[in-house]
Amino acid sequence: MPKASVKRTINCKKKELIELVLDIEQYPKFIPYCIDSKVYQRDNKENEILIVADLTIGKGPFKDTYKSDVKFYKDKDLIYVTNIDGPLKHLENKWNFKELGNQTEVSFDVDFELKNRFLNIVMTKSFQYGLNKIADAFEEQANKNLNNIKN
Known about the structure:
CATH topology: Alpha-D-Glucose-1,6-Bisphosphate, Chain A, domain 4
Oligomer: single chain
Radius of gyration: 15 Å
Number of helices: 3
């Protein structure tokens, strides 16, 4: 199973970065290869936010949609994502956030396995690169959002 991690310190408040990650409907606007997103359920509870969403990922003629369960644990500053349906046999994403003054340290850990064994082999070779591109996209979007607030 491909596994990868990335850690960044981003120039925005923790709350703003968490809101960006939870704003799944906006992903197609800034995440590479994210073609579409759809949120089916969003429950804001006292200690957690629960979201069920589809993401359609693709490039050129290749695309696929997977459904995921997204949980934000407010007391732990943790977003935990697992797959429900789609091309993934297994998916586990963890986002951890730690505020450092006006910056936020975020770690993003992904562990997944595709149902297609051949694609698993292909993805393993380029997965860290892809995860870095996703982290870059979130960082760039956070910077854009921060600049829009300042102006």
